[in-house]
Amino acid sequence: ISKRFRYDTALVSALKDMEEDILEGLKSQDMDDYFNGPFTVVIKESCDGMGDVSEKHGSGPAVPEKAVRFSFTVMTVSVTNNNGPLRIFEETKPNSELCCKPLCLMLAD
């Protein structure tokens, strides 16, 4: 059993969720002229086991299952101006589960 998201769709959705942070970063660096980009986005991919999620089906024995999650984190967003690349967003807690965006959630036995 799995739930999978298209990679490009998941990335666009994550960036749309971060729109306010990105615009605020542009304004704080006086980069209002660069609203149309191009932007450089650095992501970190990860895969982690979420432990045993066994369920008892009916009156039989418990079925052993493990949950696995593939996810990514947007680490930085930058824009290039005349002076070179300028970072307008940086994830402050890159190892936090709160900033991980799911790509695939699945159960395996």
UniProtKB/TrEMBL annotation:
Residues 1-39 form the V(D)J recombination-activating protein 1 pre-RNase H domain. GO terms for molecular function: double-stranded DNA endonuclease activity; histone binding; protein homodimerization activity; sequence-specific DNA binding; ubiquitin protein ligase activity; zinc ion binding. Residues 41-109 form the V(D)J recombination-activating protein 1 RNase H domain. It comes from the Eukaryota. GO terms for cellular component: DNA recombinase complex; endodeoxyribonuclease complex; nucleus. This is Recombination activating protein 1. Pfam families: RAG1_pre-RNase_H, RAG1_RNase_H. GO terms for biological process: adaptive immune response; B cell differentiation; chromatin organization; T cell differentiation in thymus; V(D)J recombination. InterPro entries: RAG1 (IPR024627), RAG1_pre-RNase_H (IPR058553), RAG1_RNase_H (IPR058554).
